[in-house]
């Protein structure tokens, strides 16, 4: 689920980029460009893109610690090494969108 939400964020933010780097709007966000921009990228808004990147990085860091307990994994506070690989890729793409 976490990876799906990260993918949505990437798609939403890419849909509001300037025309030269904009991707086709396949997620149906027409008419919401200003709202998406305010929510995800505007310094005046909640900056959800930055929050998602920070939360993802924290999860990867927690998951890579050698002292991760089974209860932390069961509570969803960490992910497996296998799940960390695609999350790291998504975080890299999201970080690029922040620039």
Key descriptive features of the protein:
single chain, 99 residues, mainly alpha, 61% helix, elongated
State the shape.
elongated
Report the mean per-residue pLDDT as an integer: 82
Write down the secondary-structure element order.
HHHHH
| End-to-end distance | 26 Å
Helix content: 55-70%
Number of contiguous helices: 5
Q: What class would the helix/strand composition place it in? A: mainly alpha
- Please give the oligomerization state of what you see: single chain
Radius of gyration: 15 Å
Low-confidence blocks of residues:
none
Kindly give the count of domains. Answer: 1
Strand content: under 5%
What kind of sheet is the major sheet? Answer: none
Topology, number of strands: 0
Describe this structure in words.
This protein has 99 residues and is mainly alpha-helical. It has one domain. 61% of the residues lie in helices and 0% in strands. It is built from five helices and no strands. The protein has helices at residues 2-14, 33-40, 48-64, 70-74, 81-97. Helix 1 (2-14) runs parallel beside helix 5 (81-97) and helix 3 (48-64) runs antiparallel to helix 5. The longest helix has 17 residues, at 48-64. The radius of gyration is 15 Å and the shape is elongated.
């Amino acid at each position: 689920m976490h990876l799906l939400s990260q993918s949505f964020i990437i798609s939403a933010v890419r849909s509001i980029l300037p025309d030269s780097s904009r991707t086709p709007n396949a997620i149906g966000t027409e008419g919401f460009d200003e709202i998406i921009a305010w929510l995800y990228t505007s310094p005046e808004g909640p900056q959800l893109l930055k929050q998602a990147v920070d939360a993802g990085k924290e999860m990867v860091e927690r998951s890579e610690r050698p002292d991760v307990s089974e209860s932390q994994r069961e509570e969803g506070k960490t992910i497996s090494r296998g799940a960390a690989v695609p999350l790291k890729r998504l975080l890299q793409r999201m970080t690029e969108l922040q620039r």
